[in-house]
Amino acid sequence: MTDIGLGGRTRLDRDRLLRLLQDYGVHLGVAVLLLVNIAITPHFLSAENFRTQAVQVAPVLIVALGMALAIGSEGVDLSVGSVMALSTSLLSLYLGYGMWIALLVAVLGGAAVGVANGALIAYIGVQPIVATLALMVAGRGLAQVLLPQLKDVHDPTMASLGSGDLLGIPYLVLIAVALALLVAFVVRRTTFGRQLLAIGDSRPAAKLAGLPVRRVLILVYVCSGALAAIAGVLATARLTASDPTSLGNLMELSAITAVVVGGTPLSGGRVRIGGTVAGAVLIQLLTATLIKHDLPPSWTQIAQAVVIILAVYAARERGRR
Question: Which UniProt keywords apply (predicted)?
């Protein structure tokens, strides 16, 4: 009996450890990277460095928010990087009509890609990974057709958006934080958020319960597309140039990493916005650490892949219990 009791206690301790790692491992990872950088990276604690890191993480976080909604519905959106490229092309083409018109067209372009993704998934029954992969290829191609090469953006308002600040906090960071709070509110406090989680938990059960599954799925991908377009606009404002060839490349990898590491399971039914924010910060710190110590960019991709595998393994082990 004692052996059984000890064995049961050991399993409980292991389950508790796995649960803690899934829920708070990303925060621990951020803390560890901060301590490592403080110890070995020169000038890491400078205000300018923190400002740079915050500005660079903002587009990743915004895209990851939309990705979290897609994954929470038991899907995925591989087209987010191409949507960023499409938005920068549209922004550049319509900037002559005024910044606000250009912004609206860019965001509507991203939302239109989301409608196409959602329709393929909800009405035709195409798997999310296949539907969004098709739009990933088509979106990048359309972006390059609209704007074949890099083009400088000469607009004072856009320049101010990319480099300006309010009380010392960059506009890009303020926008990213505001969107994170908005998405968190939508997921936790609205009917749409509850329906999204129910669909992600069990789509057949959601249909039997009379939930508007198709409408919710389309809205999920519209939100993801619109958020990716906003990220593309902000990245363009920061770079003061539209480059549909490279903007958003591998952004889907960074977004998926941030979401999964943040504790949102790939099986759907749950969305952790706080964890997604921490995941985006973790990815940025990891990238910055490798760059500051003169390691090639390919190491960043390898490190992200390792982080994804560890996060998925932890979720899989927990799911077995």
Answer: Cell membrane, Membrane, Transmembrane, Transmembrane helix
